Amino acid sequence: MARSRKTQDKAVVARLSGAGEDALQRISELPGGKYMLKAVADARTGIDELSAKLRRIDPLERRVTALEKRLDSLEKPKTKTTAKKRRTTTKPKPVPAAAPPPPGPTGSDGI
Fold first, then answer.
1. In whole angstroms, what is the distance from residue 65 CA to residue 72 CA?
2. Which of 29, 33, 67, 72 has its CA 20 to 30 A from that of 86?
3. Residue 68 and residue 61: Cα distance in Å, rounded?
4. Distances (CA, A) of 93 to 79, 88, 90, 96
5. What's the gap between Cα 13 and its chain centre?
6. How far, rounded to the nearest angstrom, does the alpha carbon of residue 93 sit from its chain's CA centroid?
7. CB neighbour list of residue 34: distance below 8 Å, 6 or more residues apart
8. 10 and 16 in contact (C-beta within 8 Å)?
C-alpha cells in the first residue's frame, strides 16, 4: 500500500523534530551548551517583545501620517480668499527752506 503525500510529509516532520530534539540534547551536554541554549531562548524572547512593540507602533504611524496631511492642507494658502496687501506710499517730508544769513559786520549801512 502506497503512502499518501500528507502521510509522507508528517513522517518527514516527525523525523526532523526528533532529530532536532536529539541535537538540542547533545548541545546541552556540551561544555557551555546550556549557556548557549539560554542565550538563544533569551534572544527569542527579546525578538517576540520587539515585534509586539512594533505592532503597536504601526497604527500610531498611520494616525500621524493622517494628521500631517490634515495639517498640510490647513497650512496651504488659499489663493482665492487671501486679501491682497495694499501698497502704501509715504509722501516725502518737506525740506525746510534755508534761512537767510544774519547781517554781518559789513551791515547794510552802505558805508
1. 11
2. 72
3. 10
4. 37, 15, 9, 9
5. 44
6. 55
7. 28
8. no
Q: Are 40 and 27 in contact (CB under 8 A)?
A: no
pTM comes to 0.38
Please provide the size of the chain in residues. Answer: 111
pLDDT by residue for the chain (111 residues), tens digit each? 456 777 777 787 788 788 888 887 887 788 888 888 888 889 999 999 999 999 999 899 999 999 999 999 988 776 665 556 666 667 777 777 766 767 766 655 555
Work out the end-to-end distance of the chain between its first and last CA atoms, rounded to an integer number of angstroms.
155
Query: Hunting for cell 525578538 — which residue is that?
Result: 47
Pull the grid cell for residue 102: 544774519
